[in-house]
Amino acid sequence: MTKKLFYIVIAAALICGASVFTSCTNDDNPVTPDLGVKEKIIGKWMVSERGGQPALTNEKMVINFVSTTKAYVSASLGSRPEVGTHWIEKQEVAVAIDGNKMTVTMHPDEHTTTVEEYNVTAISNNELNANLKITITVDGNQVMNDVNTVCFTKVTADYSAAILGLWECQGITGGETNNDDNARLEFLADGTYNFYRRSDAGVWSLVPRERNEYFVDGNLLCTRWQAEGEEMSYEWWEIASAADGRMQWTALRQQADGTTFQQGVTWTVTDGRLTSASDNYFLHWGRSETIKTT
Q1: Which residues contact residue 194 at a Cβ distance below 8 angstroms, ignoring those fewer than 6 apart?
Q2: 148: which strand partners?
Q3: Distance of CA 154 to CAs 6, 43, 157, Å?
Q4: Does the predicted TM-score (pTM) go above 0.90?
Q5: One digit per residue, pLDDT tens: the chain, 294 residues?
Q6: Cα(67)–Cα(282) distance, rounded to whole angstroms?
Q7: Distance between CA atoms of 196 and 224, rounded to whole angstroms?
Q8: DSSP bridge pairs for 226
């Protein structure tokens, strides 16, 4: 199996999880009423649980059902070093709904087909629960077949516009991240961003990188960056709120021992001026140097 194929298979396994679903009923042919999946599915849904456990932020997936036959998938997969990291931004997928059964078919490349079959057990305006079967074939040969339970939560917020602008970090809770109180992020409308650091002298400078990219899908925020000669780095967050010049991020992380913890970052919008009154510099947007004022 090639390295690329291995990553595709493992990415699908992240969606399924490790636990196999078994029925709690003795009835081999239970009669399930029509839950109205076609009428309720339109909209954006994000994975909240797998196998009955809360989903880590860096294993989240968003499915935006624009019709009963088409959807777009965004995924943040990268919590396990042996798996590798995947960047899936609004990939179009085919949808077929028959009663309570929903099938999502995607083609990651010209050789691979991934089929996810959701047998919906409950659906409301805010939550969807299903038994999931996933099958992956490569050049017509099945390479994976697994089942599990999954829960989605309806996403109503859209922070793709609210995140634009220059933000200064005000505080971090729950553990270290790639940002701190000396960090600024400037999110641009083209899917790129700038990262600034403040020196001990209080001067803000753009950190040079080959790539700085991000996307927002609902409240899922994915960032990746690469410095010259280094490997790509990633970070994932959920935007809890963004209003009145203040933005809050949150994330569920997992430690090496398997325990989980919650992280949070607070940002405030800034016009680029230094907070230190002793320095009379301002940050010129889009350039790597500071400009002295008179």
Answers
A1: 185, 186, 188, 206, 212, 285, 286
A2: 132
A3: 31, 7, 9
A4: no
A5: 554 444 444 445 545 544 433 333 345 555 678 999 999 999 999 999 999 999 999 889 999 999 999 999 998 776 555 445 678 899 999 999 999 999 999 987 788 888 999 999 999 999 999 999 999 898 889 988 889 999 999 999 999 999 999 999 999 999 888 888 899 999 999 999 999 999 999 999 999 999 999 999 999 999 999 999 998 889 999 999 999 999 999 999 988 898 999 999 999 999 864 443 333 333 433 333 332 322
A6: 48
A7: 15
A8: 211
- Kindly report the backbone phi and psi dihedral angles of residue 62, in degrees, each rounded to the nearest multiple of 5, phi listed first: -115, 130
Strand partners, 239: 249
DSSP 162: T
Type of residue numbered 279: D
- For residues 19 and 137, state if they share a domain: yes
Amino acid at 286: G
Show the CA angle centred on residue 71, arms to residues 66 and 76, nearest 5°. 125
What 281-285 contacts at long range (C-beta under 8 Å, 24+ apart), as own/partner pairs, is 281/203, 281/204, 283/166, 283/184, 283/196, 283/204, 285/166, 285/186, 285/194
Do residues 142 and 276 both lie within one domain? no
Look at residues 230, 224, 233, 268 and name the one whose alpha carbon lies nearest to residue 249. Answer: 268
Q: Considering its fold, how many domains does the chain have in total?
A: 2
Q: Are 39 and 141 in contact (CB under 8 A)?
A: no
Domain CATH for 30: 2.40.128
Of 196, 273, 289, the C-alpha closest to 281 is 273
Residue 109 lies in a domain: yes
Owning domain of residue 189: 165-292
Tokens of 276: 């230190």
Q: How many residues does the chain have?
A: 294
CA distance 184 to 172: 13
CATH number, domain at 221?
A: 2.40.128.280
